[in-house]
């Protein structure tokens, strides 16, 4: 199976470099343009299935795609829920003084919200258990950077810190070949 993973396009600048999680934010003007460009890039692709996170930024990214009419919007493709830390930057959280950064894994576990283990299991279940049971050879998935990085960590056996150093910019498209267990960027 070939899964085309698309990170939603750019959101409003005030949400850049923040733990946005489940905040239902929309796209910036640039994000709308990026979505249109992605739709044009993938217009000739025939996908057996189309899935997207049910959050507004993913829905708006998918809107200009001709493949959008058959999309399935699901919570399982949402970013991690950060609880009371949602909408805050690293610096804002540090300034609050409740959490001190010691190392990446400690930091991730210290933040409020969905436990990281549960988040990883959610991503693993969708991509490695649920999708393979579907009758599909090609799948389009519009989701979030964290979901893509967690999938890469699981497949490539990377630490979370290594995976979160992988650049997954807004509007990026990556193909995950489940047979070869490889990731390749679409340009």
Automatic annotation (TrEMBL):
UniProt xrefs under Pfam families: His_Phos_1 (PF00300)
Sorted UniProt keywords: Hydrolase
Gene Ontology CC entries for this record: cytosol
The protein's GO terms of the molecular function aspect are: fructose-2,6-bisphosphate 2-phosphatase activity
- Binding residues annotated for substrate, in chain numbering: 57
Q: Which residues form a coiled coil?
A: none
List the GO biological process terms: negative regulation of glycolytic process; regulation of pentose-phosphate shunt
- The active site of this protein is located at 8 (tele-phosphohistidine intermediate), 79 (proton donor/acceptor)
- InterPro entries the record matches: His_Pase_superF_clade-1, His_PPase_superfam, Phosphoglycerate_Mutase
- PANTHER family associated with the record: FRUCTOSE-2,6-BISPHOSPHATASE TIGAR
- Under which name does UniProt file this protein? Histidine phosphatase family protein
Q: Which organism is it from?
A: Sulfurimonas paralvinellae
């Amino acid at each position: 199976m070939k899964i085309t993973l698309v990170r939603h396009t750019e959101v409003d600048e005030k949400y850049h470099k923040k733990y946005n999680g489940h905040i239902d934010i929309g796209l910036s003007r640039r994000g709308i343009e990026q979505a249109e460009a992605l739709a044009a890039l993938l217009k000739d692709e025939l996908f057996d299935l189309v899935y997207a996170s049910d959050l507004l930024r993913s829905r708006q990214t998918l809107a200009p795609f001709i493949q959008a009419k058959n999309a399935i919007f699901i919570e399982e493709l949402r970013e991690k829920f950060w609880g009371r830390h949602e909408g805050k930057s690293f610096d804002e959280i540090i300034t609050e003084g409740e959490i001190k950064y010691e190392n990446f894994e400690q930091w991730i576990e210290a933040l409020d919200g969905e436990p990281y283990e549960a988040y990883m299991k959610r991503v693993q279940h969708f991509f490695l258990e649920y999708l393979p049971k579907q009758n599909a050879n090609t799948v389009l998935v519009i989701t979030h950077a964290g979901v893509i990085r967690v999938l890469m960590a699981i497949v490539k056996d990377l630490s979370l810190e290594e995976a979160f150093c992988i650049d997954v910019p807004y509007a990026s498209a990556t193909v995950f070949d489940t047979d070869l267990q490889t990731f390749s960027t679409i340009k």
